[in-house]
Design brief:
- There is one protein chain.
- The chain is built from three helices and four strands; from the N terminus they run E-H-E-H-E-H-E.
- It is α/β, with parallel strands linked by helices.
- It has one domain: NAD(P)-binding Rossmann-like Domain (Rossmann fold).
- Helix 1 links the parallel strand 1 and strand 2.
- The longest helix is centred in the N-terminal third of the chain and has 12 residues.
- The mean pLDDT is 75.
């Protein structure tokens, strides 16, 4: 049974973690605070980070800008600490 995982932070680390978790079978919701980034990731299914190859975002990863929609997972949550 897949675990629902919310990854809070759609930067390079959060995106890589979300893609990995999706590939191993989890139901993943990726939250981003930057509307332009979320819109771009939703349209292109990729997160383009300068100086890094653009990994494709798994189609199973639900990308959300609204935190309540992203955090509707009851079992697990992961936070991207790059801005902390």
């Amino acid at each position: 049974m897949a675990t629902c995982v919310a990854v809070l932070g759609a930067g390079s680390w959060g995106t890589a973690l979300a893609v990995h978790l999706s590939r191993v079978g989890h139901d993943v919701r990726l939250w981003g605070r930057d509307r332009a980034l979320v819109d771009d990731m939703t349209a292109n299914r990729a997160n383009v980070v300068p100086q890094l190859p653009a990994p494709s975002t798994a189609t199973q990863v639900a990308i959300r800008r609204a935190l309540p929609a992203a955090a509707r997972c009851r079992r697990a949550a992961v936070r991207d600490c790059r801005d902390a």
